[in-house]
């Protein structure tokens, strides 16, 4: 019997009522969505709930979750999520979580705080490794060191500090993380909508913690919250994949039976909110004027109605999923703001439909709600366009069947979905794993007015709704915090201040003290001998076709993926920003055969997706090499391959750019999205910018989609009246030069039969040879510099980039191993633990560039100083053979981690265009396995090389940048 067939029918040994290692099976159900079975169980001794999602997947997973509804804004459960992973009874080291990141073969390892639950999920393809991860996590949540080491709370939550001038400040990992999170107007708007909708329940509180409230949390309340909520009777355990279930249940039972009985009170209640129609609220926020926004929220029911939740998702897509969807078009045409969007907020007891308006224009606040509700009333009365509903339903069905979770292993994503119903009803662990019956019901509902009734009930007749506006102001929380600290300092004696300084010194001493060898020895470890040979990677094929074609014949479960790679080296550098404009506009405007609205419907009905984006391929040996490329990616079910062969080519070949009002709307939305990205992911933006100090490929990328493109776009929109008229002709001419037969390579992933049908239908995809003669692109030489970019944020993102060093003799594989040591040892301790940044890391590219980064960082100069110390630390690194072996094992496991077929095909395509030799991944893997301590230490010379070019890039608030001693070559305000 094949592994897959083993799960086709229930295991008779696991019948309802049978007991296995202290767990009694209470329900067994087939789950065709995963080609497997679901076994629901209870732990007899503790009442803990358990679920095994049994299927043939060897990327196995485990998650234990606790119901943790907050009663205030202190973020206690977020702080607990961090803190329990800082040592435990069996593993008395300071950072077992980090040790696992350093040394395990995990394919996923994290912890997550949600509005009403806390999850601790792990995944691994190695059974022994999975059990190691399970063991550490179970001991962490059940026997954490927080009861014996109160400074864990100070480190991860909050503590006071006093500088040399005796001025006070707050610090702490979660405190700084949430200062960054709540610098994002979207996060603030979402939280304030929750506060208005749910004044009497946990959803009215910020589960992550509000920095204004976090310092009110006491250590005693912190411990009490753990004791009451991290009880097994309040827990939910999910196991996933191809497991020896009796073995794993016995493992868990042994840990459960040893759980501490703390005799604490009951957990916080999680009850539904009675309907409220909240008064419109205006919330002041210190942010840029362009960040003004409004949110509308409508509660749709409860999580128990899975079909209604899915229907609302489909409905919102039909109404607002594109600029041509009827509700979004009505709002955009009204000229109220820069952008409008909608989303479903689910995974909570009372899911909601949310509507957001961003970049408000005068009068928007008074008109928005009336416009939304009147338009919804008209649609409910006159009917939602049937084609839009069918297209949205087809898109939802494709997404559910594809099961692409955006980087999460299947077992982790499905564990989270299980909690979307299970947390609120012990009988509903499978509601959000199933979709076939709900899809069938919604298809029937198309003929029965289901969606119109839903829209009327959801919006027009809502008894539970709220409206909140974010009004930008000067000052805000930062000023309040400063005043609060000044008042606190005024009430303190010199002895009190010295006590603060002494406690910080004691915290630093604890942070810097190495773990005892006997403590480290308690951690479970795998050795290189446990690393299994990698599964052979199917090779891509070059096939005969009307155009150059790379074929990836992989099992895609009836889905075909195609990527068209258009080489841009026949363009001038000044054309590249306009290529970025092309990618933003294509698929959203009229074509020769479809209006923009009909095109949107056709794409959603027939394709899983259609996207236009840019990439620039580099060469490892030549930093001056740059091959900018426009990529057109699309996917479809096998039965719709004909549309895959025709719709993308219609878009790139016949789009009309003359509807300047629509063009302006789309480009404004792109500007808004980039500004949100700079605030929420400044470390990624800063790292990309820093690469452009040294690499021509990065310079080209920045011009098409990065920071330079944003500046170009902002200038274009600022001068719209003068520049718009020339845009249609320029874009049409550019498209004709880009989309040519002799500049394209097509990559097809799927069956040979689907590929043959694709080419039979598409032919040359409407492409003709180019009239341009040869390559002409000249990319300006990169220039190292120090730059700061101002964003409305109370924290910073600090990047130092290093150019290629002549002292760098390390292999790519050796650098991969050293990257783990630098990121999870030196930087973790210096920048995160002691510095208070939420995240930090180091990376080194195959081209020889390296860089340090920090995420939501309270410091700039202190962090840069810590980067300066990395070379000396690496040169003196004296890790034990066991420690190095752990790094090697973790590095190789990451190298071998399973990927979806589409991801594998893309990886192979990018390697091909980047000039990687055949077998390059095997060579890197061998280098990783061969790494020695001397190899790691030798890399320090490259980091210390003062001849190598360097650059600093900081994204942060004005105050942080102006307080820095860095001599910035340029300071640019991004969000105005």
Describe the structure.
The chain has 976 residues and is of the alpha+beta class. A hairpin with a 5-residue loop joins strand 25 and strand 26 (850-855). Helix 2 runs antiparallel to helix 29, helix 9 crosses helix 14 (436-445) and helix 22 (660-680) crosses helix 25 (707-718).
Task: Bin the helical content.
Answer: 40-55%
Radius of gyration: 28 Å
Nearest-integer average pLDDT: 95
Low-confidence stretches: none
Oligomeric assembly: single chain
Strand content: 15-25%
By helix and strand content, what is the structural category? alpha+beta
Major sheet attributes: 9 strands, mixed
- Principal-axis shape: globular
Q: Tell me the span between the first and last alpha carbons.
A: 64 Å
Number of helices: 37
Number of strands: 28
Give the secondary structure arrangement, pairings included.
Layout: E1 19-20, E2 23-31, E3 36-43, E4 49-54, E5 60-67, H1 76-83, H2 96-103, E6 106-109, E7 112-113, E8 117-124, H3 127-142, H4 151-156, E9 159-162, E10 168-171, H5 173-181, H6 185-197, H7 219-229, E11 235-240, H8 245-257, E12 281-286, E13 293-299, H9 306-320, H10 326-333, E14 337-345, E15 352-360, H11 364-382, H12 386-402, H13 410-422, H14 436-445, H15 450-460, E16 465-473, H16 477-490, H17 494-512, H18 517-520, E17 541-543, E18 549-552, E19 559-567, H19 576-585, H20 596-606, E20 609-619, E21 622-637, H21 641-654, H22 660-680, H23 682-691, H24 696-705, H25 707-718, H26 720-723, H27 727-738, E22 744-749, H28 752-762, E23 786-790, E24 797-802, H29 812-834, E25 839-844, E26 850-855, H30 861-868, H31 870-875, H32 881-896, H33 901-913, H34 920-930, H35 933-938, H36 940-944, E27 950-956, H37 958-963, E28 970-973
Parallel strand pairs: 4-11, 12-16, 18-22, 23-27, 23-28
Antiparallel strand pairs: 1-2, 2-3, 3-4, 5-8, 5-11, 6-8, 7-8, 9-10, 13-15, 13-16, 14-15, 17-18, 19-21, 19-22, 20-21, 24-26, 24-27, 25-26
């Amino acid at each position: 019997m094949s592994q897959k067939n083993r799960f086709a029918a229930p295991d008779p040994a696991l019948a309802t009522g049978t007991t296995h290692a202290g767990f009694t099976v209470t329900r067994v159900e087939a789950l065709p969505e995963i080609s497997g079975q679901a076994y629901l169980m209870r732990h007899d001794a503790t009442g803990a709930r358990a679920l095994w999602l049994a299927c043939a997947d060897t990327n196995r997973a485990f998650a234990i979750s606790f119901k943790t509804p907050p009663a205030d804004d202190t973020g206690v459960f977020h702080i607990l999520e961090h803190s329990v992973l800082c040592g435990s009874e069996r593993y008395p080291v300071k950072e077992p979580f980090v040790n696992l990141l350093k040394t395990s073969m995990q394919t996923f390892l994290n912890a997550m705080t949600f509005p009403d639950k806390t999850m601790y999920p792990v995944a691994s393809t190695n059974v022994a490794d999975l059990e190691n991860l399970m063991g550490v996590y179970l001991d962490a949540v059940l026997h954490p060191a927080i009861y014996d080491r109160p400074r864990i709370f100070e480190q991860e939550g909050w503590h006071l500090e006093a500088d040399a001038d005796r001025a006070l400040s707050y610090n702490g990992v979660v405190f700084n993380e949430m200062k960054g999170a709540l610098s994002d107007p979207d996060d603030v708007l979402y939280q304030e909508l929750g506060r208005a909708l749910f004044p009497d329940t946990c959803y009215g509180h910020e589960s992550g913690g509000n920095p204004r409230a976090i310092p009110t949390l006491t250590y005693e309340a912190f411990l009490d919250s753990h004791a009451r909520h991290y009880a097994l009777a309040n827990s939910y355990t999910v196991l996933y994949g191809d497991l020896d279930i009796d073995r794993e249940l016995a493992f868990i039972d042994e840990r459960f039976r040893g759980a501490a009985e703390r005799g604490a009170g009951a957990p916080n209640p999680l009850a539904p909110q009675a309907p409220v129609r909240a008064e419109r609220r205006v919330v002041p926020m210190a942010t840029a004027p362009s960040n003004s926004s409004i949110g509308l929220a409508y509660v749709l029911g409860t999580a128990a109605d899975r079909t209604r939740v899915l229907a609302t998702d489909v409905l919102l897509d039909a109404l607002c999923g594109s600029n041509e969807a009827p509700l979004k078009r009505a709002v955009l045409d009204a000229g109220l703001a820069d952008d409008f969007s909608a989303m479903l907020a689910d995974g909570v007891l009372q899911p909601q439909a949310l509507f957001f308006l961003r970049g408000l224009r005068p009068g928007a606040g008074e008109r928005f709600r009336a416009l939304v509700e009147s338009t919804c009333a008209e649609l409910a009365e006159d009917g939602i366009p049937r084609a839009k509903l069918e297209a949205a339903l087809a898109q939802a069905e494709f997404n559910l069947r594809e099961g692409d979770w955006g980087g999460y292993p299947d077992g982790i994503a499905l564990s989270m979905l299980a909690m979307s119903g299970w947390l609120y009803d012990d009988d509903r662990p499978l509601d959000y794993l199933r979709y076939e019956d709900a899809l069938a019901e919604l298809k029937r509902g198309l003929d029965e007015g289901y969606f119109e009734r839903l829209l009327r009930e959801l919006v027009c007749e809502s008894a539970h709704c709220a409206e909140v506006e974010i009004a930008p102001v000067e000052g805000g929380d930062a000023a309040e915090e400063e005043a609060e600290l000044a008042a606190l300092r005024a009430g303190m004696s010199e002895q009190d201040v010295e006590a603060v300084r002494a406690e910080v010194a004691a915290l630093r001493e604890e942070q810097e003290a190495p773990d005892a060898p006997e403590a480290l020895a308690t951690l479970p470890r795998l050795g290189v001998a446990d690393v299994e040979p990698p599964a052979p990677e199917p090779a891509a094929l070059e096939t005969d076709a009307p155009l150059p074609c790379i074929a990836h014949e992989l099992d895609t479960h009836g889905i075909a993926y195609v990527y068209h790679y258009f080489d841009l080296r026949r363009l001038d550098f000044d054309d590249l920003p306009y290529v970025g404009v092309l990618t933003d506009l294509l698929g959203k405007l009229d074509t020769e055969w479809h209006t923009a609205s009909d095109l949107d419907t056709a794409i959603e009905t027939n394709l899983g997706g259609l996207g236009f984006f840019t990439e620039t391929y580099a060469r490892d040996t030549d930093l001056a090499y740059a091959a900018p490329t426009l990529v057109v990616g699309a996917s479809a079910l096998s039965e719709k391959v004909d549309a895959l062969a025709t719709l993308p080519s219609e878009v790139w070949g016949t789009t009309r750019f003359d509807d300047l009002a629509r063009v302006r709307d789309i480009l404004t939305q792109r500007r808004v999205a980039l500004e949100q990205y700079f605030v929420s992911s400044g470390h990624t933006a800063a790292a990309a910018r820093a690469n452009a100090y040294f690499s021509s490929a990065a310079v080209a990328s920045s011009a098409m989609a990065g920071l330079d493109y944003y500046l170009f776009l902002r200038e274009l929109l600022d001068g719209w009246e003068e520049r718009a008229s020339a845009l249609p002709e320029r874009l049409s001419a550019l498209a004709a030069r880009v989309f040519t037969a002799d500049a394209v390579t097509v990559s097809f992933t799927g069956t040979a039969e689907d590929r043959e049908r694709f080419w039979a239908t598409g032919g040359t995809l409407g492409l003709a040879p180019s009239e341009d003669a040869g390559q002409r692109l000249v990319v300006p030489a990169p220039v190292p510099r120090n730059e700061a970019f101002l964003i409305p944020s109370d924290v910073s993102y600090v990047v130092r980039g290093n150019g290629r060093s002549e002292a760098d003799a390390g292999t790519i594989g050796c650098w991969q191993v050293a990257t783990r040591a630098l990121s999870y040892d030196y930087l973790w301790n210096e920048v995160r633990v002691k510095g208070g940044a939420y995240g930090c890391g180091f990376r080194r590219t195959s081209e020889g560039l390296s860089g340090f980064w920090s995420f939501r960082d309270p410091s700039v100069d202190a962090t840069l100083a810590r980067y300066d110390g990395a070379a000396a630390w690496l040169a003196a690194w004296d890790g034990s053979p066991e420690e190095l072996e752990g790094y090697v094992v973790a590095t190789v496991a990451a190298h071998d981690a399973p990927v979806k077929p589409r991801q594998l095909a893309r990886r192979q395509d990018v390697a091909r265009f980047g000039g990687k030799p055949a077998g390059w991944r095997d060579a890197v893997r061998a280098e990783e396995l061969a790494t020695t301590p001397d190899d790691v230490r030798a890399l320090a010379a490259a980091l210390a090389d003062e001849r190598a070019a360097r650059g600093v890039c900081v994204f942060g608030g004005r105050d942080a940048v102006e307080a820095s001693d860095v001599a910035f070559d340029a300071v640019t305000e991004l969000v105005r």
